Amino acid sequence: MSKPSLARGTRDFGPEQMAKRTFIFDTIRRSFQRYGFLPLETPAFENLSVLMGKYGDEGDQLLFKLLNSGDFSGKLADADWQEGYKPLTSKISEKGLRYDLTVPFARYVVMNRGTLVMPFKRYQIQPVWRADRPQKGRYREFYQCDADVVGTDSLLCEAEIVLLLHEILPALGINDFTVKINNRKILTGIADMIGAHGMEGPLCVAIDKLDKIGKDKVVEELVERGFSNESVYQLDPVFTLSEGAEPFTALKNWLGSSEIAMKGVRELKEVWDLVKVLGLENPKIQFDVTLARGLSYYTGAIFEVKANNVQIGSISGGGRYDNLTGTFGVPGISGVGISLGVDRIYDVMEELNLFPENQKTATKVMVSNFDQSAFRFGLSVLPKLRAAGINAEIYPDSVKLKKQLDYADRKNIPFVILIGSDEMQTGQLTLKNMKTGEQQKLNADDIITLLAGNNI
Predict the structure, then answer these.
(1) What is the rounded distance in angstroms from the CA atom of residue 312 to the CA atom of residue 122?
(2) Which residues take part in binding L-histidine (predicted)?
(3) What average pLDDT does the chain have?
(4) Which of 102, 176, 349, 446 is deepest in the core (most CB within 10 A)?
(5) 184 is in an annotated binding site
(6) What is the pTM of this model?
């Protein structure tokens, strides 16, 4: 019989890892709520008609598609099998696992727009799936934590995203990070300036790979994608623009004749100004003209967050999309959002040893079990501990004390309440500190007071 194994690109999370993940989720959730975002969940799978065509060609190929249930191939003719995988897929699969949380959110907004209070601010914390090649920091199943605002084109939303990131990451212990910002309008203007009008999509996909494959390979890819040598030559300032102290000035000098590029520059400058007005001192924000983000639905500001001094990709990304709901027949609903990659944040925190030692999900006290009468007595104490908000359990079997203490020790339970015949007669229970070995006699109420105020 073969041993069970995990599907590539997925992971199990045991109790220790889940305690850490819960810490991340809770920290992010609190900040989202503080900024006025409301919770939302959507199904794990969507109709492929909802998902296809929203992420560009590369994204479409990374969708996990679900075979139709039952006899999925029963109605197929021999000719259908010869057509190639794309036409065949549409005949045997109608649904797919969600690739991100933004497109399902857009679908939700369109379906419920009559009842939503606009602008609508929502956050969503759920897993997504991508048929990507697994590698360090890249998984096929991973959680995203999204916060989006739709129904307004105010640049305050972009500025608040910057503030939100500056609140969440330090709360997780990640203080050395950079929020890179660009604007798709600038990239559209660049495409126009180099004589490649309407080719900003392929331009963005190639430029977005700059930090992964380097300038030479990007140039090679642009030529392969149909850009002329002259266009690629004119693109050269892109590779040095972000390094200057005054990138906006350099942009104006280069792209001053492009109306759409200048609109992008003005939008970015306003975001910078609003961040200052909101009181964020020394913001860790950086303009990066090579930041493109491969997703095809962004139309304005785009964000990407890197944790510095760690060899892991971006831990957050997002941007402004003016026409995402338009693909569902409802144009004109502008939105902007940010997505935090919990799995990468987890890896960063693990690498930098940033998790707090005390996790609130763990058991704080265990009640011993010597014999049937002590067990019954312990059962009367257990609900009182839990009612006081103390994580508590009782050892289920009457076995030797050493086995019970070993169990508590292996689970890192800091306190054990020992209940024997003396304790039952006097009502003075023995509280053992597993770290120091110290024991003290206290009644149940005093134990509850001590444990409720103890941060161990």
Answers:
(1) 28
(2) 100-102, 130, 144, 148, 293, 297-298
(3) 88
(4) 102
(5) no
(6) 0.83
